[in-house]
Amino acid sequence: SFWKICRSKNILSYFKYEGFCISLVEAASAGCFLITSSVISAIDVTSNEKYGRIFPIESNAHQLAEMFSSLASKEEIMQSNCHNVQQYAHENYKWEMIVAKIEQLIV
User: Fold this and answer.
1) Most buried pick, 61, 84, 100, 107, via CB within 10 A?
2) CB 36 within 8 A of CB 55
């Protein structure tokens, strides 16, 4: 649930195929560091890995464990990411902002 995400520091999303991964946006709005497979929306939602890491879909468990281990030793990245990713999610994915952008395009 969303409240469980709110208590997390990061989230792992692993899909082979995914259109737009709304769960990543929800995690970003909760301040989580995003770790996702290289689905189409990954670059956009992580802001080209500014707010997360993207791993190849073909990655194995050992490669993912190395990524987590590397990130665990970088607590300062996790802490600074929390507020910044929330702001990014708000500015780019909040429904009101999306509607305003669409309105600008069609008016």
Assistant:
1) 84
2) yes
Distance CA 107, CA 83 (A): 33
Q: Please check whether residue 31 is in contact with residue 86, taking contact to mean a CB–CB distance below 8 angstroms.
A: yes
What gap in Å lies between CA 53 and CA 71, rounded to an integer?
A: 9
Residue 49 identity (one-letter amino acid): E
DSSP state of 17: S
How far, in Å, CA of 24 to CA of 21, rounded? Answer: 6
Q: What is the pTM of this model?
A: 0.76
What is the per-residue pLDDT across 23-51, written as a single tens digit (0 to 9) for each? 888 889 888 888 888 888 899 999 999 99
